[in-house]
Amino acid sequence: MAGSMTKEDEKVIPVRVALRCRPLVPKEINEGCQCCLTFVSGEPQVIVGNDKAFTYDYVFDPSTEQEEVFNTAVMTKEDEKVIPVRVALRCRPLVPKEINEGCQCCLTFVSGEPQVIVGNDKAFTYDYVFDPSTEQEEVFNTAVSQLLLGLFRGYNATVLAYGQTGSGKTFSMGGTYTSEQENESTVGVIPRVIRRIFQEKSKCADCEFLLSVSYLEIYNEEILDLLCTSKDKPIISIREDPKDGIKIVGLTEKEVFTAHEMVGCLELGNSARTVGSTAMNAASSRSHAIFTISLEQRRKGDKSEIMVSKLHLVDLAGSERQKKTKAEGDRLKEGISINRGLLSLGNVISALGDESKKGTFVPYRDSKLTRLLQDSLGGNSHTLMIACVSPADSNIEETINTLRYADRARKIKNKPVLNVDPRAVEMKRLKQQVQELQVMLLHARGGVAPVLTGSEPVENVSDILEQNRCLQDENGKLSRELSEAVGQTALMFERIIMMEQTNEKLQSKLEELRQHAACKVDLQKMVETLEDQELKENMEVIQNLQQLILELQMPNGN
Ligand SMILES: Nc1ncnc2c1ncn2[C@@H]1O[C@H](COP(=O)(O)OP(=O)(O)OP(=O)(O)O)[C@@H](O)[C@H]1O
Ligand SMILES: [Mg+2]
């Protein structure tokens, strides 16, 4: 029942370690030195002597060339590449209202180039530019479908429709889709995505898939579950997990098995979404909506490699001017909240996209929208922004604003990573640990270490697991003994410190005694002058004592 969006920014990445062993140098060879390391072929593992096995991210044996070290460990890994947010500009045709008002088209499209010119001078270039004649199918095939390939390879993706109210965001995304429109060319992105996902899924016969969807709207800064039909809607909150990133607690995540079921979820959510009429758009979205498809996949029979990737399809509410929408009451309140969310989004986009603000604080927390889109902007996602504009000259100011906004978004660099399930990673780690323990165990018994290939029969694995359990018990026992020994050592240290303190005190007392006037008296002279035998003997005792004090004060007690 909970959606999650991992936050790449806060993920901890361990220091990677490459072990490199050089060949024996001539001096060592002359001295008859032998190699004391064994390198496990195909594994980043090294065994020292006969028993100690160590595993690293990379292990380079003495035959490894510099080039291999550079290519394997130094070159940026595919996973760590940054890629910019892509932007598709989409201009809708003039709508009847604009034609009636005598509006003219204020945009010129440069043929064969993804470029648009506003008025007579300002030119903007994007990744794609779709002029008013572009069909929904072309938008999908050109800009969206490639994201789905990434999704099946384990990468998160986001499609985000942005633009002024009435510019065609909901139309482009398919936010009013009902199954009656199934075969129409006006079907938007989301239903097309659903169709394609199920087509792709049926092509992978050797994979098992688990698909689920969630659909939410942010209305007046509150998250509402568009798939929850019950009257007592649970409260939805955003939680930030240091390991898993952003989690949406209480949100319905519906498992689906067919395209029909998934489209059903879209229709259900579309009908529940808050829509209102304004002077700019008869069916204006009054909320930001996020339709999320979760794709979990694994190879049949291989439980260890699970990938979970997410696709967020976002239809934002449009920026609006009260003067033009003539919004009052609830509509006005909604409009203020919509603009506030979009302003936060704009701040996040400019913090991420502006080179001069590089490294500065990104205000994701300023609104629910930016918190939820954290991954899609500057995070772990391949992101496409569809910037929607009206061609009408009456909207030129808003159009320029959108073009600028979209231009900034293009400068955002995302860092998509392959989303391998943490459970699978943990399993891999445990398997590796079993292998290491097995090597140690066999060497301890004087045997030869076999190398696990990962495809051992089940009984073998259960044997190993049993051995692992025994070793863990043994390890636990040794750890307890070790901690006892550590405790005793600490106690001894404490005693040593106390004795040192006592010693210091004694030393200073001795020093005092040595400095004492009694020590300076020439007792020998007195002994010689004394007549009384008894007094003489007593004096000799004192003289010995004086001598002792002087000796004690000498270094090392000598
Ligand atoms: N590419 C297009 N071709 C034909 N009609 C379009 C196109 N884009 C939008 N329209 C029409 O323009 C009107 C407004 O579109 P839409 O509701 O999608 O705007 P919006 O950007 O979602 O606005 P809001 O922010 O108010 O929700 C609708 O009547 C829609 O059918
Ligand atoms: Mg809309």
Automatic annotation (TrEMBL):
Keywords: ATP-binding, Coiled coil, Cytoplasm, Cytoskeleton, DNA-binding, Iron, Iron-sulfur, Metal-binding, Microtubule, Motor protein, Nucleotide-binding, Nucleus. ATP binds at G163, Q164, T165, G166, S167, G168, K169, T170. Its cofactor is [4Fe-4S] cluster; [2Fe-2S] cluster. Residues 14-75, 84-412 form the Kinesin motor domain. Transmembrane segments: none annotated. The keyword Cytoplasm applies. GO terms for cellular component: cytosol; microtubule; microtubule associated complex; nucleus. It holds the Pfam family Kinesin. This is Kinesin-like protein. Residues 461-516 form a coiled coil. It is found in: Cytoplasm, Cytoskeleton; Nucleus. PROSITE patterns: KINESIN_MOTOR_1, KINESIN_MOTOR_2. One of its GO terms (biological process) is microtubule-based movement. One of its GO terms (molecular function) is microtubule motor activity. InterPro entries: Kinesin-like_fam, Kinesin_motor_CS, Kinesin_motor_dom, Kinesin_motor_dom_sf, P-loop_NTPase. The keyword NAD does not apply. Belongs to the TRAFAC class myosin-kinesin ATPase superfamily. Kinesin family. It comes from the Eukaryota. Its main location: cytoplasm.
